[in-house]
Model the fold of this input.
Amino acid sequence: MEINQKSALDSETEYTELMIPSYANFGGKIHGGILLSLMDKVAFICASKHSGQYCVTVAVEGVEFKQAVEVGELVTIKASVIFVGKTTMIVGMRVESFKPTEGIIRHTNSCYFTMAAKDSEGNLAVVPGLILKTDEQLRRYCKGKIIRKLSLEKRELLKSAVKDQLIQDLRQECQEVDKCFIA
Ligand SMILES: CC(C)(COP(=O)(O)OP(=O)(O)OC[C@H]1O[C@@H](n2cnc3c(N)ncnc32)[C@H](O)[C@@H]1OP(=O)(O)O)[C@@H](O)C(=O)NCCC(=O)NCCS
Done:
């Protein structure tokens, strides 16, 4: 049986966009939602390159905005598929912002998106395995494995933890330690 595999390099993507005034928020900085939309676009590009299928966003596993982005800067997203499951892929992205007048590149944020591959009928499709050729790709893969594990644990915890607890226990727990006021 032929095993379908692709190199991490095959999905590598670099996408640059100029931050125009209509992308700014009331504070004059670039709106976080604009960056999320760009990241979603890039995640789709990487996932469809790897899977050869139409892809959908399943989850934003983590976004950290380290620094604000300004109007007039060039935002570059460097990304690739870093981990594959059966039908899903985790795309890792590094976002950098470049101010042409100063020549400085800043690392503004990093993020991980889980994308699923779908066939022409809209069913989940099995994705190719991932060939890792460098130590860096191996490191990213292992990070992806942790992200997948945490994502599954989070989902399970959210499903069961609160539902199965008695309301009086929840009330007591919240009143004792949290800054909430139960009326
Ligand atoms: C997300 C989706 C694919 C899950 O389908 P499902 O049949 O309920 O999922 P399953 O439990 O069989 O899991 C299928 C895969 O999705 C992953 N998955 C499911 N829910 C997930 C979540 N909340 N976060 C991360 N991964 C998730 C599973 O780990 C599994 O991965 P694997 O095949 O690589 O091991 C499906 O609900 C879907 O298509 N959602 C709509 C996505 C979409 O349209 N996005 C665009 C938003 S506008």
